[in-house]
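@channel sequence for tomorrow's demo:
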Amino acid sequence: MVILIHIVWHRDSVERRFGRMASESYKSLDCITAEDISALGIPDDVSDQLHRKLAGIIRSSGTGTPETWHDISKHLLTPELPFSLHQMMYYGCYKNFGPDPPAWSPDSGSANATNVGRLLVKHGSEFFGTKYVDPISSFIDFQEFSVSNPEVYWKTVLAEMKISFSVPPECILHEGPTYPGGHWLPQACTNPAKNCLNPSGERNLDDTALIWRYEGEDELPVNKMTLKELRAEVWHVASAIETLALKKGSAIAIDMPMDVNSVVIYLAIVLAGYIVVSIADSFASSEISARLKISKAKAIFTQDLIIRGDKRIPLYSRVVDAQSPMAIVIPTEGSDSSMKLRDKDISWNDFLGRSNVSKEIQFVAVEQSVDTFTNILFSSGTTGDPKAIPWTVATPFKAAADGWSHMDIRQGDIVSWPTNLGWMMGPWLVYASLLNGASMALYNGSPLGSGFAKFVQDAKVTMLGVIPSIVRAWKNTNSTANCDWSAIRCFASTGEASNVDEYLWLMGRAQYKPVIEYCGGTEIGGGFVTGSLLQNQSLAAFSTPAMGCSLFILGEDGFPIPSDAPGTGELALGPLMFGASSTLLNADHDDIYFKHMPSWNGKVLRRHGDVFERTSRGYYRAHGRADDTMNLGGIKVSSVEIERICNAVDSGVLETAAVGVPPPDGGPERLVVVVVLKDPEPHKPLPDISNLAATFNSALQKKLNPLFKVSAVVPLPSLPRTATNKVMRRVLRRQLSQSDQSSKL
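structure tokens (generated this afternoon):
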């Protein structure tokens, strides 16, 4: 059997991961010749022209400054040129720069035109007095102001987003021992779905609210729905929901792809005063069943099947196998399925026919206290049971405020982010786009191919959200070739750790528009660390705590290191975060987020669970989970959930440990399963290690999630354990990571 051997950690391994070692293999810009460029497969005449441009840029901006890279990225590089040239220019420019080179920098004109920039131009002197300089110079002060002055900040931002209340709040924040995270907007009543559907400010009913396309219809014009049409559809579905005679506040699940129907249903449930239960359409029946039971859902909206290319993936049958309550079943576009329903279930047409009210008749929104639940989402717990996290009426405003301040989403924008209502980014997308007066762009199909890339072009998407695994697929297949993404103003990325080269490639597809890295959690309703269009953005790094959030990196003594000092440790959050959870349905919120946490300035810090690094230049980088949860393909899952399935696949397996291991060159975690085999029995062979990965994969994809994949199986004679017999997965993760690093040396 293979035994893991502890390898001394090399100091430059992180620097290698983020580009230092890569840059050493490239020439500095002033040493690059036309022949070097031609060697990349570029015709000689084009190489000569590019070299002359490069020489001119060097003369005006120097050989290795952020200004040099800005000029190269804007005036020399194009999406059509080989990516190897992009790498040559980027790494050559920053060969001697050190860590965290800026891949994008703001200019005063574009910065002043952002939502935050316009706000600071108008109110900067009012906020900071003579200390105010300009939006770029004063951005850090503004972020700190958002934490220290929540009354002013949140009142201002909610007003900017035109959020209306039927009963206005007494104040923004009330602090007291009853609410360790603060009591936000006390006494206020509103309805976030109503706010999504209201014309306000410069937005009117004829503005486009939804843009969509079905896979396979790539040559047809995109479909569009105005705000007026969306509102009528939501009113109609809300009226039909009322005929189900469910008690107000009942939970109603959605297990569907994120398309026009699911968005309409989502808004209708919230508008009518019920609670959405978010279930990802990739889940197996057992996972659907668990979420329905925990949430006590009274009904579920679903589809008969999902069509992805030539594949027909059953969905309704999984819902039936989960022993769901009453299901409202929507026929899939392009399907000729005439599926027989259970007696208690209702077809979509019959459901809509139950409403005898015209679509044009307004449905009166149910206005509720901001503490009322609107959505139940799920995040993995370390016990194997998913944590049921309620979003309140206030949480959507946190999501929208992040979009407003960090992705600069505004009236007239077109926002696309391949996701699902089962994950927090689905509801986030609904609120961050519609509450900010933007259009939501939805592609009903796989986001991995050229069809989605063309949809981004045809819909004229201005803010494109991604997860790193999608970007990797685009880069590997060159599926964005010949697509014009020039309408994109910025990218945003969340869900997984990103990779420098892959995101350099991504920026190059849209004339080097910035990537706003975004990290948060379902229990936060948005992000706690992210980027800004008013700051330099470095690849695979976060540049700022999110507005209204404070971050603390805990040292080895368990207390925060100085806020301006570089270091790595478990991340803790300031407890006063607008929109963050204050309760869980099936766990003790205080135990999970506050118990045994240190205090800072008289306030108990909030546990998050990620290991973060603050670099010497003030950027933040994520280094995976500190607990027994991992991130696979943007989905958080506990080791226990995976191990429970792997332990049962073969009688020769004694026990397993599932570990998420980050690749040496950065990017999403890989799932490695460490396996301990039983002592051999007479006449009974041990399982073949080489076949176990396929066996584990088959079981995980069938019973847990079809997106999960085991990258490697590592046999050990035993698992490292604590004195109380708990498996030390953190030790395994460190050893596996160090083994990967050594193989790259």
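heads up for whoever presents: Residues 1-19 have pLDDT under 50 and may be disordered.
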